[in-house]
Amino acid sequence: MDASMFTRGAPGTVVRVGQGDTAYHAFVPAPLPPQLTFDLPLVSALAAAERALGELRGLAQNNPSIGLLRAPFMRQEAVLSSRIEGTVSTVADVYAYEAGQLGLPGQSAAPPEHDVREVLNYVEALEFGLSRLASLPLSTRFIRELHERLLRGVRGGYATPGAFRISQNWIGDAGATLNTAVYVPPPVPEMTEALSALETYLHAEELAPALIRVAWVHYQFEAIHPFVDGNGRVGRLLITLLLVHWGLLPVPVVYPSVYLERNRAAYYEHLLAVSTQGAWEAWLAFFLHAMADAAQQAVQKALRLDALRSHWRGVARASGRSSLLEQIVDMVFAAPVITANGVIKAFGVTHPSAMGALLRLEAAGLLREVTGQVRNRIYAADLVLEALH
């Protein structure tokens, strides 16, 4: 790492590790919070982000059907956050895999199975984190438990899931060394101290707005980089968990990675510029714009999906007398790739009843059978999948 990149404004200390030819430099971030003056552009960006999240929060609180979108929105966030790290799966791929099919006929080529598994691990880690908050405060232990679930049984499993690193890591292009890396996070002793300070900050009373705190915490975690692998995904999991934990959203129906993935280069550049120059204002403006954009997209998507659901429920009512049809319609908005066994498990009906309902919904044009098989059929709600894309 080039120590000369770090200016006097850097929010931390560059340390020299080792001696002679093996010596290298690493960056140790100072504890949060930073000293920061809120200028008018930053206040305006904060107001816009809070307004967008407030609209989404109100929609989620006042429209119970939005709760059906929790599962697909979480999967969308998982897909996009994992895509930043190089996976290629889609939301449709994830739902198809959960229904027993690797890829959907008529869609793009099937993704590598390990990519889909990594996305599902992200979903499982997020679900775990949301439930674990009821019994365990945000802490280094909590973060390690997230990491263990994120890397369980997938690539990166070599990277001691659930354990902080015990050796130096670095960020850089393939083939980079400690001396040619773009960024070298704190050595292990300083990393341990920095994690302890971060945990203290998570529990401290703080006057700064919650969204600003989320941005600070995300930067700080990425700067500490405490795992051998999976740091980016854990850091983005913390964004969603903090939004819920600090009362900014009642349920995780926003996916900030939609903006971060689309602006990946700028995302990394802003994080590095905080470390090298103390460019907090630029990072906060970027983060707040990402949150406003994600919330606005979530509102539009939620309203579009809710309108589609209302229409489909009307079509289902006209297609048969059974209330099961409307129940399956609700089901496909949470899981738009389904099977007869899934219907049986969800509603306790017989196999003939489940298949009869699926066939009626297929005849009404709401579902499409994707396997072409006589047995073990899988049905996709294409319009729902398109709306989620």
Main features:
389 residues; mainly alpha; Fic-like fold; Arc Repressor Mutant, subunit A; 2 domains; three-stranded antiparallel beta sheet; two-stranded antiparallel ribbon; 15 helices; 5 strands; elongated
Report the biggest beta sheet as strand number plus sense, adding barrel if it closes. 3 strands, antiparallel
- What portion of residues belong to β-strands? under 5%
Give the beta-strand count: 5
- Head-to-tail CA distance between termini: 39 Å
Oligomerization status of the protein chains = single chain
- Domain count, please report it: 2
Structure description:
By secondary structure, this protein is mostly helical. It has 15 helices and five strands. The protein folds into two domains: 3-38 and 72-290, Orthogonal Bundle (Fic-like fold), CATH 1.10.3290.10; 320-388, Winged helix-like DNA-binding domain superfamily/Winged helix DNA-binding domain (Arc Repressor Mutant, subunit A), CATH 1.10.10. It has a three-stranded antiparallel β-sheet. Strand 1 (12-17) and strand 2 form a beta hairpin. The longest helix is centred in the C-terminal third of the chain and has 40 residues, at 280-319.
